[in-house]
Give the backbone structure.
Amino acid sequence: MQGLIQRVTQAKVEVAGEVVGEISQGILLLLGVEKQDTEQSAQKLLHKVTNYRIFTDEQGKMNLSLNDIKGELLVVSQFTLAADTKKGMRPSFSSAGTPAQANELYEYFIAQAKEAGLRVATGQFAAHMQVSLCNDGPVTFNLSV
């Protein structure tokens, strides 16, 4: 499971000109599901996303997590994160999970995040989305489990 996280001051997702998800300070997570991923993978990634120390403390050091700052989480499905780009000039998606598997794990991830007490907003699975954000830093990390 791949998670590209960006520390944001705000982010939103639109589908067909309508906002479907929006957050203020927190993390924008682009979530990619691969064939071998399971609910356990989703749990591990959620733990990493919510506890990864990417927010600054009083001394300006990245010592605080999303949980610490009580930030918000915007989860957007992004199957292209599972792309193999090592060869040629066109990505291969042979390692990506099926749409059914990806949707199931995407929904599971969101449910677990909400159960953990996070304020969660989402994109729309398999939709053509426009994502807008203000990356704070910029701070971006690719997390995998």
Summary: Residues 14 and 118 are 21 Å apart (CA to CA). The first helix runs from residue 39 to 51. The two ends are 6 Å apart (CA to CA). The chain has three helices and eight strands.
